[in-house]
Amino acid sequence: MTRTLFILLTLVLSANAATGARAASDHDHGDHDTHDTEHADDGRVEIDADMAQQSGVTTALAEGGQIERLAQVYGTLATLPDRRAVLQARFPGVVTSVQATTGDRVQQGDTLAVIESSDSLRSYRVRAPIDGVVQTRSVSPGAVVSDAPLFTLVDDRQLWAELKLFPRQRGAVRAGQTVHLRINDQTAEGRIAHITPGSAETPYVIARVALDNPDRRFAPGDLVSADIVVEHAVVPLRVDNRALQTLDGQTGVFIQDGNQYEWHPLELGRRDARYSEVLDGLHGGAQYVVGNSYLIKADLEKAGAAHEH
Known about the structure:
Elements: H1 3-24, H2 29-41, E1 44-46, H3 49-54, E2 58-61, E3 63-79, E4 84-88, E5 93-98, E6 105-106, E7 111-117, E8 123-127, E9 132-137, E10 144-145, E11 149-154, E12 158-165, H4 167-170, E13 178-183, E14 186-197, E15 205-212, E16 223-240, E17 245-247, E18 250-257, E19 260-265, E20 267-271, E21 275-280, E22 287-291, H5 293-308
């Protein structure tokens, strides 16, 4: 909700209040007080459709759905073991040419260097065994080579998210569970492929999630935060957590009926990062406010404050 729209809504609501005040000037002061009390106490606000749209007030249908219990974990991205290759000279010799350097993307079979064998004096080619990017290059033309690494290739079109599971989390996590990943302000989803022990010095095990990366927006070493879905249940009624507001110590939502928005306190049950289960206070099929519900709350509180004054 932008500040401009908030001001616009405030002006319209103030104009409506002023119109009401002018109309009330033909009545006695006691009638005016009664009008304010009804507006503050009945938990209703009226906003016309055009103003609601301009102010970003949006609604959703109250219905059933899934509630997830999540385990929050952290880790890093890593290259798959079979997607990394370290290349050495097949025979000792002299490097006569180098045709790839750090950062180059190569395809399987591309020539990376040519070496003249010290034994046969015949040249042979060092070829890329996989598609990937040249991560390191440790050779130059004219160098004498034997068994030292010449190139390291990495195929980063698929990565592992390696997530650390500490003892209190391990009992609820298993292979096959869905994982919601957050990496560099971006999101992705996958499933746990397997869980492997950590080293003897570490107090955690590793859950690995395969992550497709065709556009290479992620890179090995990126930090990952993740929510593992360890349990899920289908509930008969739930609401979006963005809709929840608190009034007079009660949590609830605003229900739309035409231009009327009415406050409904709720009894809530299970909750996850997106939804809350509704046990009482709402019926299925109701239209409840999700976007910018705080504007309606602000107007209701303003009316209540005016009445108290």
